[in-house]
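Progress note, sequence design subtask.
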């Protein structure tokens, strides 16, 4: 991917984050940047690129995974974008607690799902035995 395309994707993702956060104020504050500087970054007519170093710095300050800005996120459903908007205004310590909680919930669902499959398999075997008894 050429640097122009990367910059376009990064700029688009940054604009998405700004829309979801309800404007430049919160994001500029988290990035420790003047609103004017942030506006220049997202300006489509701005020929300056958003390089890798700046992209990683933005991601770190916003609590995003490294590389997040490099992948287009405009395809996300409205509900996911709404959650992201709320996420951006949370303090980093609370974001970490929430990430841990979500990971724990997903892991517990995985175990429940595995248990359900085993129960279904056992139930299917039981029904097969019952059918053989009827014949």
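Output:
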């Amino acid at each position: 991917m050429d640097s122009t395309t990367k910059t376009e994707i990064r700029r688009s993702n940054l604009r998405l984050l700004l829309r979801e956060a309800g404007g430049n104020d919160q994001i500029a504050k988290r990035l420790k940047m003047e609103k004017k500087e942030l506006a220049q970054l997202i300006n489509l007519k701005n020929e300056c690129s958003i390089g890798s170093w700046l992209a990683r710095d933005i991601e770190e300050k916003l609590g995003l995974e490294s590389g997040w800005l490099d992948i287009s996120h405009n395809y996300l459903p409205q509900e996911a974008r709404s959650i992201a908007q709320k996420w951006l205004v949370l303090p980093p310590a609370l974001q970490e607690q929430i990430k841990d909680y979500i990971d724990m919930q997903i892991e517990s669902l995985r175990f429940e799902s595995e248990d359900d499959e085993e129960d279904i398999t056992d139930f299917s075997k039981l029904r097969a035995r019952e059918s053989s008894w009827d014949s």
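The longest helix spans residues 92-134. Work on this subtask will continue into the next period as scheduled.
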